Amino acid sequence: MHNDWYLALAPMMQRTDRHFRLLMRLISKRVFLFTEMIPLGAIVHGDAEHFLKFDPREHPIAVQIGGSDAEKLAQASLTASEFGYDEINLNCGCPSDRVQSGNFGACLMRSPDLVADCIRAMRETAAVPVTIKMRLGVDELDHYDWVANFVATTHQAGCKTFHVHARKAWLKGLNPKQNREIPPLHYDWVYRLRDEFPRCRFTLNGGLNSESAIQTHRHELPGVMIGRWLYNEPYDAAQFDQRFFGDTAAPPSRLEVLDQYLAHIHEEVSRGTPIHRLTKHLLNFFARRPGAKRWRRLLTETTLPNSARLQDVAKAYQLAQQISATDELSTDELPSAL
């Protein structure tokens, strides 16, 4: 596991559900997928089937769990292993009010001994690697020595892979969006951790929004993790397999991806899944292309609850064919009938 260079889709609440993950897999065969954070209670006390099921095509895939009860985390890790995930990740980085009230996520950066207990318990039941998603500190605990101690303590408990969002979290005064942007990035700290803990693997997350940014770290770190960029411009990942992994097969065209994803839409709708949960992930599919605004406007109609129809999706596909046929047409020149 993780012997080769690693490029992951970051876990994002209300974004990296099983539908968006499948869309990403249809675009790239190599990107390592993460679920959105799943609260511990949803697995242990809720409908585990609903929260953990995924399409076999999504492999390789990790499940991210949010919680701080070692015994229940062990139970959840066993369940996640039985579902067939390739990695189980403990969230120690999310700064939202929800995780603060539940004493997990970034709050756990304050309690390395507790996290170590959780990792030990999870590793006892997990059939796959157990990893940590972390920040470079929290609130006033934002000095390097504290972060290094957190890594040392949890590494002694058996964690070998750390996905590092390279900025600290402010639990008071900043909302989650601001926590992704305001605290300064410290890539140098991640490199220092790499040097001081040679038996660990550190992937870099935060501020990576271009292929050139990935290339900067590609040969220095064992992996990177990308979030909002790929949600806002998902088809950018179509080039990743060739450029970062040396694959020789041509990337799928946008229409080839849409053909497969539309088949998924029809199958899910037949099972009762609301269309808007499926089509919302396509809003940015033609980002930066002529006709993108019209695509988004038309598709937005299908993302409104109780108003979407399969015929609206079919109409959007006709527009997709027009957009894919040319790069020269401006938005205004696209057929008005669509």
Descriptive overview:
With 338 residues, the chain is of the alpha/beta class. The protein has helices at residues 18-27, 40-44, 48-52, 70-83, 97-101, 112-125, 144-156, 176-179, 187-196, 211-218, 228-232, 240-245, 254-270, 275-279, 292-300, 310-325; strands at residues 6-9, 33-34, 38-39, 61-66, 87-92, 130-135, 161-165, 201-205, 223-226. Helix 6 (112-125) runs parallel beside helix 7. The chain is globular, with a radius of gyration of 21 Å.
End-to-end span in angstroms?
47 Å
Describe the biggest sheet? 9 strands, parallel
* DSSP summary: helix tally: 16
The percentage helix is 40-55%
Radius of gyration: 21 Å
Brief sketch in words of this structure:
This protein has 338 residues and is α/β, with parallel strands linked by helices. Helices cover 43% and strands 12% of the residues. The protein contains 16 helices and 9 strands.
